Amino acid sequence: MEINESIKMTFPNKLDYSFMIQLFVREIAKNIGFSGDELDQIDIATEESVSNIMVHTSDEENPTFDIICEKVRGGIKITLKEKGIPFDPAHIKKYEVTKILDDLSTSGLGIYLIQKVMDELSFHNLGPQGKETVMVKYLPGVEIRKDQDAGLETRQTAAVITEKIEYDVRGLDEHEAIEVSRCAYKTHGYTFFDDHIYYPERLVEMNRRSEMISAVAVTKDNVFMGHSALLYQYPEDTIAELTFVFVNVEYRGQGALNRLVDYLFQVPKKRELRGIYAYAVTNHIFTQKSMIKFQINDCGILLATSPASWKFKGISDDASQRISVALGFRYMMPPVSYNLFVPEHHKEMVAKLYQNLGANHSYIIPSSDSLEFDSPAASIKSGANELEGCAEIFVVSYGTDIRQQIRKLLQSFCIQHVASINLFLKLKDPLTFWLTAEFEKMGFFFAGILPESMIGDALVLQYLNNVSLDYDKILLVSDVAKELLTYIKAHDPNIID
User: Fold this and answer.
1) pTM for this one?
2) pLDDT tens digits, 238-258
3) What are the tens digits of pLDDT across the range 172-217?
4) Which of 143, 249, 447, 479 has the fewest CB atoms in 10 Å of its CB?
5) Are 323 and 305 in contact (CB under 8 A)?
6) 3-state helix, strand, coil in the chain (%, to 5)
7) CB 228 within 8 A of CB 261
8) Domains of the chain and any CATH numbers
């Protein structure tokens, strides 16, 4: 093998394959030049690492993991990649050798053995791609270095707690960020829509910068139960998304979800917060019922925003099509009455949605001479979520090139195979009254409203990129949401009569 040449094999997470895996690694090590005791030591390290993966396997169906053997300068690098639960090596207890046999604990023994027989050992979180164990062994006579303080997660399966327990709800302590990532994994696997949740260090930094406000529920013994957060998506936002809401399965039924959300409503905010919005999935009704309980009322339905593979541990639902969401909003300050330029053909529905939120506005028909642009270039902010296969376009200000810019973005997202594209138009701008029909000619259609967004109160349109959607599979709770879905379906240009 040449330097940096590598061989990868994928194995099922089954103990039956242990010997074959060791043989695979051993033969490559022999080819690189290892022999005798060094080969035996590589065997030990491989066996311990593989055993840990197989014992603490992921919850995926038919789980597999990759082993990559690479010839590096002076030796071999062995990488094991898998999609097990997130971990924080800094919190793993070291194995301690004692002189009294009865006091020996096997906790950390596997890592201890690997550290003894290998020259380097490290562990890495890979976000939605799982995690990896990396081991390096150098040939005799090669100068080596060792990483210190390495460790690996251990997984415990707790029984469901049926009796009521006492617990606290408070802000996140930074060392608990890893527990948030673990809880996200245990409730949704690696399918969560925002991969920030799988990186504890990101969660800590976002809380420090007030981009996120995290709340946690912990038992009186400081055992982590669940998490929820308010997330400011954009620097300009004066509204925050209620998101990352999950409770470990064993603590469901304790009322933690309600207390977590109540805490977020009441805790003092460092940033202005005019409102809270949330997305409730429509392939089951549980999250919608929670939103109603929190007085986060329906104001939109965004179709096919998430992959059908998105998981809800412990909840049976239909995974036959992409997941649509009900958009809800709650004012955190008394709503201000605005003059809004709602397109005439959507005015009645928009008025119903604002009424559902408890807001009253004036709906103005602009004069024809208002169809003038202040600038030749429109200002637009946009972005795509690759994990979700959806994108957002915010029109900050109109310009004479607005149609061309929207067409160009739409084409780009479609080429990237983005399934669902949402367009936000400023309702305080009279040009929205005139131009909405132009965007609808491109294939956009009504989705709802979002008050106090980064561009102010927004009309939301949506575009589906070759998405097969059965409206009858969209489950809704409120009468407003059901009426809205009927309205959306009537305006969907993808419906073939």
Assistant:
1) 0.72
2) 999 999 999 998 898 899 999
3) 999 999 999 988 888 777 767 678 888 899 999 999 999 999 999 9
4) 143
5) yes
6) 35, 30, 40
7) yes
8) 6-138 (3.30.565.10), 167-331 (3.40.630.30), 339-491 (3.40.630.30)
